[in-house]
Structures are given as C-alpha cells and as structure tokens.
C-alpha cells in the first residue's frame, strides 16, 4: 500500500485522477498549440505529466503529495518535479496546465488570474465551472471582471467515469488566453473590478436601474451612458459581452 501523505488521503487532497485517454490527448494537443515553458498544477500520478514530457518544452510539475513527488521524480527524471501547494506557488511559466482539484477550483482560478507572466492556461475543471467561465448561459462576476485582459473558451465535456475515484460531476476543458491587446489598461483593473462587482451585486430590473444605483447617477445619465455604448437598458449584467463592459467602463469613467 502506498504511504499516506501528511496532508491526508485522496479525499482531503481533492484528488480525482484523470484516466480518460481522449481527454489527456486533447489537453496535450491544446498545450502543443501554445509556445514557451509549461507549468502543470497537480501532477498526481503523472498521467498527464508523462505526455507533456514528450513535448520539446521546459516542463515543471507541481504536486503537494510528497509520496507522489518521490515517485514522479523516479519515473520522470527529465521533468522538474516540485513539491508545492499551487495556491502559494508562483505561476511563473508561459503556459499553465492542470487537472484542478474540484474543491479548490475557484481559489486556484483567482490565483491564476492575478499572476502576471503566463499567456495561456489549459485547465480541467468541473463541467459547470468551465461552462460559466466560458460564458455559456451568460457571464458571471469572475468572468466579467477578468474579460478585458483574458479570453475564455470551452473545449468539451469529460465524463465523470474518466476520473478515479469517480466524482459526482463531469469535468470540462477550459482554456484562458491573455489578450495581446487588453480592452482596458491594466492600471485601471482595480477600479474596473469594483465597478463590475457593484453592477453584478446591485439591484434593479435592467442595466439602466442597476447602473444608476451602482454609480449614483440619475436615471437619464445612466440611460445616456448605456445608449452611447449601444447597450439595451433592459439587459442584465450577465448579458453583456467583454466589449460592452469595456465600453461602459470608459463611458462611466469619462462622465
């Protein structure tokens, strides 16, 4: 029997190991379409790591379970295996890839979106998280806050039986690409994020009323700002596209 990690077993570590070969192939193909160094989050038993190691790229793999780290170092001497918690480790590579622990998906995404170096991310998350981040069914607060600097895309569903142990939900493949030309200057990011949060958490039957409450403007000014951006006053925050948010932020800032 493999020794138990000091961090606990698979349940405590949120480990659902990927065994679905078509998904591994897809993840590797998506990474192969990028350039630069690669950092894998949560190498586990190395099913994805072994395939990534076949790419002619500098590869670092993070794994928190010290017993698995020892095994990976023996089996993959050409890969830099680092024992680390991804939440506290710099994401200092050009490409970030990983089967994210389902219970840590949101904090890991926040850590990723705050990092400055990487240009592309190829991630396996819960299906609903992947759908929401990609904007299927409408934007979410996190996606809208990040959209001026990042583009999200959905690349398919992964059946729960493709993991061991089998989780209670399916997985989804999500890619995130840093925009070469941001829709909003990075120096305005904090102010923009506060503005988007106030809109998503504000009350109102449409953007005109929500914008009025969020900015303190009168109703006429709110409708005028929306009209200047070509946004229907009856729409809701989830209906806006990244370009809508960027235009609205510029208009509100100007006024």
Automatic annotation (TrEMBL):
Residues noted as binding S-adenosyl-L-methionine in the record, renumbered to the chain: 16, 18, 42, 63, 85, 99
Any one Gene Ontology MF annotation carried by this entry is: RNA binding
UniProt cross-references to PROSITE patterns, sorted A to Z: RRNA_A_DIMETH, SAM_RNA_A_N6_MT
Question: Which Pfam families does the UniProt record give?
Answer: RrnaAD (PF00398)
- Look up the signal peptide feature and give its range: none
Keywords from the UniProt entry: Methyltransferase, RNA-binding, S-adenosyl-L-methionine, Transferase
Tell me the ranges covered by the Ribosomal RNA adenine methylase transferase N-terminal domain, including all copies. 23-180
Q: What top-level branch of life does the organism fall under?
A: Bacteria
Gene Ontology cellular component?
cytosol
Q: Which SMART domains does the record cross-reference, listed alphabetically?
A: rADc (SM00650)
Give the UniProt family note: Belongs to the class I-like SAM-binding methyltransferase superfamily. rRNA adenine N(6)-methyltransferase family.
Q: What is this protein called?
A: Ribosomal RNA adenine methylase transferase N-terminal domain-containing protein
Q: Which organism is it from?
A: Microbacterium barkeri
In the record, what lineage is assigned to the organism producing the protein?
Bacteria, Bacillati, Actinomycetota, Actinomycetes, Micrococcales
């Amino acid at each position: 029997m493999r020794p138990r990690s000091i961090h606990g077993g698979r349940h405590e570590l949120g480990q659902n190991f990927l065994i679905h070969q078509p998904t591994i192939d897809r993840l590797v193909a998506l990474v192969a379409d990028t350039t630069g160094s690669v950092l894998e989050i949560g190498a586990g038993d190395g099913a994805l790591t072994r395939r990534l190691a076949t790419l002619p790229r500098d590869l670092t793999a993070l794994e928190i379970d010290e017993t698995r780290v020892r095994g990976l170092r023996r089996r993959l001497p050409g890969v830099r295996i680092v024992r680390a918690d991804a939440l506290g480790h710099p994401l200092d590579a050009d490409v970030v890839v990983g089967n994210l622990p389902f219970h840590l998906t949101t904090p890991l995404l926040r850590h990723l979106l705050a990092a400055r170096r990487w240009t592309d991310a190829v991630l396996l998350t819960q299906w609903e998280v992947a759908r929401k981040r990609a904007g299927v069914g409408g934007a979410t607060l996190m996606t809208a806050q990040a959209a001026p600097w990042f583009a999200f895309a959905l690349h398919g569903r992964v059946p729960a039986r493709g993991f061991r142990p089998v989780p209670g939900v399916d997985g989804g493949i999500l890619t995130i690409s840093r925009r070469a030309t941001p829709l909003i200057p990075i120096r305005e990011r904090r102010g923009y994020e506060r503005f988007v949060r106030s809109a998503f958490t504000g009350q109102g039957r449409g953007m005109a009323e929500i914008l009025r409450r969020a900015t303190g403007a009168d109703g006429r000014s709110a409708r005028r700002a929306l009209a200047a951006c070509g946004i229907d006053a009856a729409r809701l925050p989830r209906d806006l596209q990244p370009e809508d948010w960027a235009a609205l932020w510029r208009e509100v800032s100007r006024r």
